[in-house]
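tool_call: predict_structure(chain=1)
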Amino acid sequence: MTAHDIADCLASLAECRSLCLQTVVDCLKHGGLLASLPHIRAMNDCTELCGTTSALLLRESPLAGHLCAMTSEACQLCVIDLKAFGDNMTPMMRNVVAVCQKTQTRTLALFRFTQSAAAAARSQTQLQEYDPHHHGNAIPGAVPGATPSAPPTNLAPPAIPAKSVQSPPQAKILSPEPAVASIGSPKRDKRTSEAMATGMRTD
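tool_result:
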């Protein structure tokens, strides 16, 4: 979709709005079935939507695409209503049919273009959300534009420090106490015994 295509669409909208408005006045003058409510309402809807869509396109509103779809439908309904008169159509009504068909084609093409552009913008936004190089999701300390390296796979697991095993306390072996030596030597003890025996006999 180029700027020339948008300009053509704006031209068709302006022409359709002007011609529908003039035809409404002409039909009301003729009266009868030409002035019936459904017939007048169809052309009035086309008139209003063409003017509103032109205004939104000129100010580059994001809602212009939705209005283009509604305008395309309004032009189609207006063509169906006018063709229902058959040979009773006035020359102005025939002109409205031709202009409405052209406007319907151009507004529908513009609507499809805006839908495609919106879908592409959403896809780009989703890619940026998952892109690690995007400024909003960059890894702290990472070099912009650098390919993130994969974590090494040949690293040994961290060593777990072994707990010191304390040996159980050894039982203290008590050495036997030395025997108490008898007082005096054996010879002295013998003499003492003899002396004591002698003394007892003397007594």
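agent: Residues 3-130 form a domain with the Substrate Binding Domain Of Dnak; Chain:A; Domain 2 fold (CATH 1.20.1270.360). Proceeding to next step.
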